[in-house]
Amino acid sequence: MPDTATPTDHRPALADRLDELAELIGDRRTVVLTGAGISTDSGIPDYRGPDSPPRTPMTYQQFVGDPVFRQRYWARNHVGWRHMDAARPNAGHRALAELERLGVVTGVITQNVDLLHTKAGSRRVIDLHGSYAQVRCLSCGARISRMALAEQLERVNPGFAVASVTGLEVAPDADAVVEDTAAFRMVDCRCGGLWKPDIVYFGESVPPDRVAAAGEMVDEAEVILVAGSSLAVLSGRRFVHRVARAGGTVVIVNRGPTRSDEYAVRKLDASCSAVLSGLAERRRVRSA
């Protein structure tokens, strides 16, 4: 059963629970699955946390099927991607990179598109849903950096990004809240095809080779540690179920319930930064 705690119970303090968790993981090969909750301390809001406002993420069908919607999206993304690009890893990201160096974490599968695990120094990372930093053409498959597209968009929309920054609110997919987008001009690929962020949208499938690589990483592991995900999306949740079916150990660290709590041997309703930093500290002491 999940090891959950509420404000009214008398369970051990976080330090004691971290001792138990560190002992449970021990020297066992551990793969980590992360979601938006690990990046909130870097200033990137999550989708479904207890304090998050209601969000309606864009679907693939909306993006490809509605030119007005697509114009609005690119206008907002033209502002929001800079916020994500400027974000820096927090203590949780750095702790996972350290746990990898210490031989505990064998790899990270992230549902985030913010690249913060790579920026923190994690070497074996699968960006399950892609990255904000690239765009690709839906017709010819060409890829360019988000910075290169930003320069093109700025030339045809001079000053738009700067004028739209006041009171900025940015979603986890780099979609900024910008109300006046009617005059924004889009840019297409040289072939005439549509540019799309290299991100897996709702209603779109994760590329099979990426799923296979994540599956191989999971099959090598004895423990899967979920950090900051409600596991509402099957693309990540399936790996938890895969470990559980193989007889491995599931550990979940998340603010609020998840859709796989019943599989967890331990469930900590706590800050990812606090828990992961605590695990790294205990492992560091043990390795000294």
Main beta sheet = 6 strands, parallel
Count of DSSP strands: 9
For the largest sheet, list the strands in their spatial order: 3-2-1-7-8-9
Q: What is the N-to-C succession of helices and strands?
A: HEHHHEHEEEHHEHEHEEH
In CATH terms, the superfamily of the largest domain is TPP-binding domain
CATH class of the largest domain: Alpha Beta
Q: Mind telling me which CATH architecture of the largest domain this is?
A: 3-Layer(aba) Sandwich
Arithmetic mean pLDDT: 89
Approximate shape: elongated
Compute the number of helices. 10
Helical fraction? 25-40%
Could you tell me the CATH topology label of the largest domain. Rossmann fold
Distance between the termini: 34 Å
Rg, Å, rounded: 20 Å
* Portion in strands: 5-15%
Helix/strand structural class: alpha/beta
Whole-number total of structural domains = 2
Low-confidence stretches: 5-10
